[in-house]
Records
---
Amino acid sequence: MYRDPVQSLEAPSLPSSATAMRPLRVGMIGIGTVGAGTFRVLARNQALIAGRAGRGIKMVVVCARSLARAMSVVGKDVALTNDPMQVATHPDVDVLVEAAGGTGTARDWVLAAIRAGKHVVTANKALLAEHGNEIFAAARQHGVAVAYEGAVAVSIPIVKALREGLTANRIEWVAGIINGTTNFILSKMRDEGVGFAEALAQAQALGYAEADPTFDIEGIDAAHKITLLAANAFGMPVRFADAQVEGITALQGLDVACAEQLGYRIKLLGVARRRKDGEVDGVELRVQPALVPATHLLAHVNGSMNAVMVKGDASGVTMYYGAGAGSEQTASAVIADLVDVARLQGTQAAQRVPHLGFHADAVNDSLAVLPRAAVHTRHYLRVPVHQAQQIEAVGAWLAAQQVPVLRVELACEKTAPVGAGPQVLVLTDAVAQSTVDLAVHALAAHPAVAGPVAALRVEMLEG
Ligand SMILES: NC(=O)c1ccc[n+]([C@@H]2O[C@H](COP(=O)([O-])OP(=O)(O)OC[C@H]3O[C@@H](n4cnc5c(N)ncnc54)[C@H](OP(=O)(O)O)[C@@H]3O)[C@@H](O)[C@H]2O)c1
């Protein structure tokens, strides 16, 4: 008789191999969306997880601000406290799950846990983007692991893919849609022809955007994540402060429609690209709304979904797709990290997968983020003009400024409302950002130009 293998793993009792070893004892700070999901999934899939980890994983203490609310989630068998430091340094805790968020006190708790010899699991991308170098150095010094799959793309195991599955490769670039809120907003703008403000209001009403959506819509959340991916891809320190970050607040519905006319869709992309050409040696590290060809796989990642693509010299392009947020979706990553930690028992720190994929002596401290001016991509320009015939003057003027123009056309009536006036749409070949910035600035003074010029990058992300 056929037996589903997963069903057989879900037997209520722990496998005998998992009872031989002491369970991994977890202390958790914060029992909100991520914390509660982690507790639920750990409880629901207890035997299955233990079978994979080789030992049980047991929540022993939880820190919450409201103990009554915490008790309603974890029941009476888990100790509760209001004091995060007590969990971080608790003698019965092997691993701290930091699920509270923030970068101030969360840093103190995580460092205290590390100094007390605890492993740490966190989904806190802001914390690692800002303090990752310090936290990973402390973890190395104390011989403990800091695991953070949930901090990047949640249900997509992209950190594991980069650190383990793709270790043979020289990574050329990593790019992706790594913020569900902005992808939801951009999908609404395209599908329903609404402006940014209305799409944001819909996202908030449906729970896809927070009451204060700044980190999402300004691209900061995506920048936290692409910074961590870049460190893993290229063997560089975490360089969030150097990332170029542009959100979608200034994006106009008109540009979403014009991109469509040209055969492209606009997505908020995180891009990390290794560049070594001529004088240039560094990494482009940036978040920006960009045009991708409508035929590209990333153009079809809609709603709140996330996707990451990686180009390796041996693997070619690989793509990973899944939910980028959510209670149990994040728990999936947090628990995968706990299973990794459970499997560390008896290993020496040097034998483990390094925090950022490269052993400390192989991390290239001098590998720098390239300045904005050096970024090299194709571009889209939308130039409002007084009269449609001025299209030729605009094209010729751009070419004279060393902008490699590939295509020039007028926005059609269906694309641009009559009141907007004629719009010249330009696609360029790859060109330095400095050239485009100069041309856009100078265009403002051109007699044919009737208003502010919109400029966006175009990402081909080819194999
Ligand atoms: N939600 C997601 O889908 C998701 C996905 C990936 C990563 N993350 C990351 O995971 C972390 C947690 O996010 P979340 O969505 O779970 O947030 P959340 O729902 O707001 O939960 C955070 C919890 O931590 C508690 N907390 C905060 N400071 C505390 C303190 N000093 N002592 C005790 N408890 C404290 C909060 O208590 P109060 O309720 O009393 O404030 C809240 O219950 C963040 O770093 C976030 O970026 C979240």
---
Amino acid sequence: MVETLTLAPTPSIWRSHRSRWITNLITSYKTLLAVLWIVVFTSFFIWQRNVGSDGFMFFKRGVVARQLPVFRPVVVNITDFGGVGDGVTVNTVAFERAVFYISKVAKKGGGQLNVPAGKWLTAPFNLTSHMTLFLDQDAVILAVDDEKVWTLMPPLPSYGYGREHPGPRYGSFIHGQNLRDVVITGHNGTIDGQGLNWWKKYRQKVLNHTRGPLVQIMYSSDILISNITLRNSPFWTLHPYDCKNVTIRNMTILAPLKEAPNTDGIDPDSCEDMLIEDCYISVGDDAIAIKSGWDQYGAAYGKPSKNILIRNLVVQSMVSAGISIGSEMSGGVSNVTIENVLVFNSRRAVRIKTAAGRGAYIRDITYKNLTFDNVRVGIIIKTDYNEHPDEGFDPKAFPIIRGITYSSIHGEGVRVPVRIHGMADIPVRNVTFRDMSVGITYKKKHIFQCAYVSGRVIGSIFPKPCENLDLYDENGSLVRKSVSENASDIDYDI
Ligand SMILES: *[C@@H]1O[C@H](CO)[C@@H](O)[C@H](O)[C@H]1NC(C)=O
Ligand SMILES: *[C@@H]1O[C@H](CO)[C@@H](O)[C@H](O)[C@H]1NC(C)=O
Ligand SMILES: *[C@@H]1O[C@H](CO)[C@@H](O)[C@H](O)[C@H]1NC(C)=O
Ligand SMILES: *[C@@H]1O[C@H](CO)[C@@H](O)[C@H](O)[C@H]1NC(C)=O
Ligand SMILES: *[C@@H]1O[C@H](CO)[C@@H](O)[C@H](O)[C@H]1NC(C)=O
Ligand SMILES: *[C@@H]1O[C@H](CO)[C@@H](O)[C@H](O)[C@H]1NC(C)=O
Ligand SMILES: *[C@@H]1O[C@H](CO)[C@@H](O)[C@H](O)[C@H]1NC(C)=O
Ligand SMILES: *[C@@H]1O[C@H](CO)[C@@H](O)[C@H](O)[C@H]1NC(C)=O
Ligand SMILES: *[C@@H]1O[C@H](CO)[C@@H](O)[C@H](O)[C@H]1NC(C)=O
Ligand SMILES: *[C@@H]1O[C@H](CO)[C@@H](O)[C@H](O)[C@H]1NC(C)=O
Ligand SMILES: *[C@@H]1O[C@H](CO)[C@@H](O)[C@H](O)[C@H]1NC(C)=O
Ligand SMILES: *[C@@H]1O[C@H](CO)[C@@H](O)[C@H](O)[C@H]1NC(C)=O
């Protein structure tokens, strides 16, 4: 991120850009238009340089507007590309031109595209490297909700299919692939997917392809998404796929809690080195679901999700769970820390879900300082989530679940605090509970339910832990060794 202003591009560089473009690319009307834009902007740059004496002052036209923070040497405004924020005009060309323009200043540190207050309707568009998309307060980028203008893209390699239909899938509303250094931020402006029509059509089964996510960044690194609101995604909301070094901070992610199918908040998918913090997420499916591909396709792609830190979140999910891992995890998931999370008014709090056929592993997962407030099931591990892409999966590809630690778990209004449902072929090993006190609303015997689980509880645990686990006192001395790690007292009727 470049916080200080540098000099405006020099005319000579612009001249060389211009001549290269003129000689190489005047092949179509569209290209000609693009060239015209470059010429116009070059002239404008030169003019600005001559006029401006107090450094760079692009498009400072005496408009009384609040100064927005500047992250890049070049700053442009969507209105300068013909954008109209009236909620009716379709601004696809304006966004495309702005992004194209920024792609031409990449070598100089890239560009920042400001989107001022207004409703900016557009079809899906692609981002470029070294770009900051800045949404001012009351700026809303609105997705055209007619699927005919949504680009079709090939299925994700680690899924083999669009998630809902075979063959191609709709691309995301705001999309990027093979990028570096992308920032999406603002003064809490909004990207609104207008998902209502998609959800209806999905339920009526009239869509022929998998719905598109709201924001999807693929095969990219050094991504920062912060300080804005994402809402009403047609499908998963924010989907970093096969990315490295992604930070998601101080975001609000919203969708209706019911009848907004599969509107997960954030789906880190085959990603490494990721930080998600200070977010509020209330959506129609998992608030967060860490994934890494589906059965044989995910195994062949072989890219794990790892080194992920999730902290300081407030999340709600009435259909699924606050924080999930899986169910698609066939590239493996490891080294994930989830801490300081409040899950409220939800069906489940933290869930691991997988099935025979997935293969790979889920290991070294640490949950710390979680608070559950009015949730049905607190901690849950499910090993028979039998949803498969096709019949080609290997039923003997058993995922390995190891090294799951829960500490400082508190809460009230939780019907079933723990349900860890391992199976003979998919036992859950090396589980640790330390310092847990979760109040219950529904008193029945087995509310700390286990099957095929081994590990330990340390110190004070409420409710009374299942017999499958070894018991240690708070100083780490063994009190009682379990003799029944394979016992099952799972009861879904509670
Ligand atoms: C963008 O341009 C519009 C119209 O000229 C202006 O009202 C607005 O203040 C500008 N915003 C920024 C952030 O430059
Ligand atoms: C975005 O880029 C991808 C990859 O190049 C391409 O398949 C897709 O059609 C582009 N989407 C749009 C809306 O231009
Ligand atoms: C979070 O973002 C909002 C705008 O969305 C901003 O007002 C607030 O100061 C940010 N908080 C932090 C800690 O960055
Ligand atoms: C950002 O906007 C969302 C949606 O309008 C709102 O719920 C949230 O409180 C706002 N965040 C901040 C920091 O103002
Ligand atoms: C789905 O395909 C059918 C048959 O080709 C077509 O009639 C229908 O319009 C398509 N639906 C959508 C939403 O594209
Ligand atoms: C990660 O990305 C951020 C930008 O989001 C960048 O500032 C930082 O240098 C990157 N870190 C590494 C280790 O590449
Ligand atoms: C988010 O907002 C806070 C508070 O205004 C600011 O300190 C921080 O730099 C912002 N982050 C980004 C990336 O804009
Ligand atoms: C685990 O992930 C954290 C980020 O959450 C990272 O700092 C740490 O280096 C990773 N550990 C290993 C062994 O890779
Ligand atoms: C635990 O998480 C809550 C937020 O859910 C936070 O307010 C509190 O400070 C955290 N406690 C510790 C010891 O980090
Ligand atoms: C059990 O899990 C903990 C935490 O993930 C890890 O540190 C430890 O090495 C594991 N022990 C065994 C025997 O795998
Ligand atoms: C529990 O089942 C596993 C197979 O999942 C087996 O290897 C192990 O020996 C069994 N343990 C006991 C105490 O029966
Ligand atoms: C744990 O150790 C502390 C300090 O040595 C001691 O006061 C306490 O009684 C021990 N607790 C148990 C359960 O043995």
